[in-house]
C-alpha cells in the first residue's frame, strides 16, 4: 500500500464513527483482490474471512451508534419534559400537588424497649470507634493472628533449609506494634 493510500485510511480521532467506517470500507476493498491478480484458494479464503470480520465490525459499530443515539434521544426527552414541568410550575400554570403516603409509626412498646439501652450502646460504639482509630484494634488482630500461627508477619518470614534449626519464636508485642504502624501509615490503605 502506498503512503498516499495509507493516509486515506488513517482514522482521524475527531470524526469517530466516520473514520471507522472509512477504515472498514478500505479493508473491504483490500479483501477482494483485483480482477487480474492471481486467485489462489488461500488468498480467497483469507479475503473471505477478512470480509466477514469487517462486515461484523461494521454491524457492531452501527448497532453501537443506534443504541447511543436512542440513549441520547431519551436523555433529551427527559430533560425537555422536566424543563416544561418546571416552567409550568414557576409560571403558576400548574399546581404543585404532593402525593405522599401516610407515615407508619413504630408501636409504643418498640420505642420504649430501645430507650434504656441507648446510652450504653452509644458508649460502647464510641469505645470501639476510639479503639479502631487509635490502632489498638489492629494491634489486637495482629496479636491474635500471631498466636494462631507464626506466619503473621509476612515480611520477616524465614525459609528453613534442611539441616538448619527451626526458630519459631512468635514476634513480641513491640515488633507487632511497629509492623502494624508501618502497615497503617505506609502506602495506600484500601478496604477491598
Our count of helices gives 7
The termini sit apart by 51 Å
Roughly how many Å is the radius of gyration? 35 Å
Task: Provide the structure class.
Answer: mainly alpha
Q: Could you give the count of β-strands? A: 0
Shape: flat
Helix content: 55-70%
Kindly estimate the percentage of residues that lie in beta strands according to DSSP.
under 5%
Described by strand count, sense and barrel closure, the largest sheet is: none
Strand/helix succession: HHHHHHH
- The overall pLDDT, averaged over residues, is 77
Topology of this protein?
Blueprint: H1 3-9, H2 17-31, H3 41-90, H4 108-114, H5 118-134, H6 136-148, H7 173-185
Helix pairs in contact: 2-3, 6-7
Describe the structure.
The chain is mostly helical and 192 residues long. Among the domains are: 3-90; 129-154 and 172-187, no CATH class. It has seven helices and no strands. It has helices at residues 3-9, 17-31, 41-90, 108-114, 118-134, 136-148, 173-185. α2 (17-31) runs antiparallel to α3 (41-90) and α6 packs across α7. The mean pLDDT is 77.
Amino acid at each position: 500500500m502506498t503512503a498516499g493510500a495509507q493516509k486515506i485510511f488513517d482514522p482521524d480521532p475527531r470524526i469517530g464513527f466516520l473514520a471507522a467506517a472509512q477504515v472498514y470500507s478500505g479493508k473491504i476493498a483490500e479483501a477482494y483482490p483485483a480482477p487480474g491478480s492471481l486467485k489462489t484458494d488461500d488468498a480467497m479464503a483469507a479475503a473471505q474471512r477478512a470480509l466477514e470480520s469487517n462486515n461484523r465490525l461494521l454491524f457492531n459499530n452501527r448497532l453501537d451508534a443506534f443504541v447511543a443515539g436512542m440513549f441520547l434521544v431519551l436523555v433529551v426527552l427527559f430533560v425537555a419534559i422536566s424543563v416544561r414541568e418546571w416552567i409550568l410550575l414557576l409560571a403558576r400554570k400548574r399546581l404543585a400537588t404532593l402525593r405522599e403516603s401516610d407515615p407508619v409509626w413504630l408501636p409504643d412498646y418498640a420505642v420504649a424497649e430501645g430507650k434504656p439501652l441507648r446510652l450504653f450502646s452509644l458508649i460502647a460504639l464510641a469505645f470501639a470507634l476510639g479503639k479502631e482509630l487509635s490502632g489498638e484494634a489492629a494491634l489486637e488482630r495482629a496479636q491474635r493472628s500471631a498466636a494462631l500461627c507464626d506466619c503473621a508477619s509476612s515480611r520477616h518470614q524465614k525459609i528453613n533449609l534442611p539441616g538448619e534449626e527451626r526458630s519459631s519464636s512468635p514476634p513480641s508485642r513491640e515488633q507487632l506494634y511497629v509492623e502494624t504502624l508501618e502497615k497503617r501509615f505506609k502506602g495506600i490503605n484500601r478496604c477491598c
